[in-house]
Amino acid sequence: MRITGILFFCFLSVFCKAQQFQLTGKIILLEKPVEGATVFLENKNLTTTSNALGEFTFKELSPGKYTLAVSFVGAKNIKKTVEVTQGNTKIDINLETDKVIELEAVDITKINDKAADKLNQVEGTAIYAGKKTEVINLKNINANLATNNARQVYARVAGLNIWEYDGGGLQLGIGGRGLNPSRVSNFNMRQNGYDISADALGYPESYYTPPTEALDRIEIVRGAASLQYGTQFGGMINFKMKKGPADKPFEFTSRQTLGSFGFLNSFNSIGGQVKKLNYYAFYQYKKGDSWRPNGNFDQNTAYTHLDYAFTSKLKLTAEYTHMDYLAQQPGGLTDEQFEADASVSVRSRNWFKVKWNLFNLSLDYQLGEHTKLNWINYHLDAGREALGVLSYINRPDPGEGTPRDLMADKYDNYGSELRVLHQYKLFNGQTNSLLVGVRAYKGLTFKKQGDADAGLGPDFNFLNSQPNKSDFRFPGTNLAVFAENIFQINSSWSITPGARLEYIYTGAKGNYTQFQFGVPDLIKTDNKSNPRSFVLFGIGTSYKPHPAIEIYANISQNYRSINFTDLRVQNQNARVDSLLKDERGYTADGGVRGNLKDWLYYDLSVFYLKYNDRIGSVFTTDASNMIYRLRTNVSDSRNIGFESLVEADLLKAFTQGASKYKLVAYTNFSLINARYINTDNTAIKGKEVEFVPPLLFRTGLSFGNKTFNASLQYSYVEKHFSDATNAESTPTAVDGIVPAYQIFDFSASYNWKWFTLSGSINNLLDEKYFTRRADGYPGPGILPSDPRAYYMTLQFKL
User: Fold this and answer.
1) Given a cut of 50, is residue 563 above it in pLDDT?
2) Nearest-5° angle of CA 653, CA 656, CA 659?
3) Cys-Cys link to 600, which of 206, 648, 717, 721 (CB 3.0-4.6 A)?
4) How far apart are the C-alpha atoms of 441 and 416, rounded to whole Å?
5) What is the spatial distance between Cα 117 and Cα 36, in angstroms, rounded to a whole number?
6) Per residue, what are the HEC states of 204-263?
């Protein structure tokens, strides 16, 4: 029935169009084309933006007179009347500079035909001046989007350690600048500006990852994001979803992908602009089998976006996201098992289930010519359940008839963020930008653990309907006020100070069973509360000796609260220090970035990340001499690194833009030295910080035109450790070395009218490797990464 519905949706015929004409135009400012200008067709209530050539188009217009309203940061608003006759009409619009906000017009350097970019100094109601920012333009990437292949998608983001153990792209695991990649927990994860993680305070892990097929771009702000988006050391990642095309009332896209190991992905979307309403919606169904036994998954994702422009100043947006999946997990391996045959599985009863529901209602309002407001309100109703055998991987599963362990979580979170951006002039006549905002967040996590069904299948029910190991509720409240201001000293130099005032309350209430030598001994109760407040400060600067060159620097404080949700998990492989305390520190970075004659983009930077009371993992032994991992405040640490990205269109350089083809080469290179410091513990003093590859190198070459494109990518990750003591290996395989590995990926695509045929060969040379040692789900032990795999996608777009 599902397949029938998909086929019907894919081949649904649309509608017949009546005779129509189109209005095209070009917007010019200071004799240069303007990209990103907003063009509003008042008579039809249609809105679009100009492209990199300054061009815009309105289709399906009847003959008559129309009024165009054009606005652009750095220019005066303009209205122009144009008459559409019996034929297509073209018009040129020359804008005049507005001295009040002239600087922002100079600062905008977006190049839409490049995969890598940066954020502007001011975008919407956010300030990014002087910060290390990165943008991934998904429409310009030739990659395996059906599986969310992070190695390809994030290839142009420097310094990322990527965990690869999920062939279907169900979860994302990336860490920047030496931070733990586990479910992106060291980044503030957002979709269209609102939180998507399980619990921003007590459990900041992301079980939901938006399909890359539905994304317009990915925005990344490094550690300085702590002032605007939260206190995280890693910064912020924001997934910007696609919207309906502004120049037509209906567009239908269908992408069908088949791949190795039984992989099937069906992605279907609709979108468009109907008068004042813009809409976009998609449904994705994905399933597959692992290349190892006992591994399969089945996922559904759906999304709806509606925004309605009541006036040219007021817009209301509503969004809903649903995701659910069920996955059988083949479990981890010991070092010996991995070396002998990485395709085996010694766990046949491990299952994982996730259900995610996100709601968002936001309002955008132009308070005045130089003041705008954004108000976001969101709600998360979600949960995840992990069922299986968590005992040491070198001990076999007793098999059917023995109860399994079940951890069941439910997340119920509400948040609201209000931002106001005001631009003004001071005595020097330069434009300054002030951002102020407030955040209110209330989260509640229910976490239960106990013995469950003794069978083989996904039966997520506790024995006797009650958890016998722990039953907790973890409330959390966060109130924050933040402000940043761009002081424009002159036309080339700006200074951006900022501050964030935080109030955080986290609590834990419930009971847990204390075990003695693996036997239940005593039931204890907990009732803890931990309120605290503090202020974070930061300052950044940006200097432009030339319009195409920017030198930037920033330093901002960071903070990470302890996770009460981890304190009562019963796991033989990992234990948590009950005296854990919050982590504090700061991130400093500086660099130079820019463009060279529209064919070369570069960003070279250095950073210093100071982490006080870093929570890490050290392996130790218990009374029975069994090795386990202890999660505790290990010591202070410091990460020093160099990051670089260079991307060049070589044919554009050689032919001065005359070639119809593109030959794009990029290089992403990072060096990171991360060490534990300020400790007398000889087991970790001077040791390398875990999860930090000292060298990361990714490079690629892409050739093609608007019809055809082929890309080859190479990735190299240096060996690193999975615990703070830098253990070479352990019997349980939970700690040890992650060996160096190198991967080639190949992708190609061909467009013909409404159709696009694309394909990928991932891990082209069939490298045998792994990126993660897990202490719990989906392990424990070594999680082998995928061997060579083939994927083919057929897209139909109308």
Assistant:
1) yes
2) 90
3) 648
4) 6
5) 15
6) CCCCCCCCHHHEEEEEEECHHHHHCCCCCCCEEEEEEECCCCCCCCCEEEEEEEEECCCE
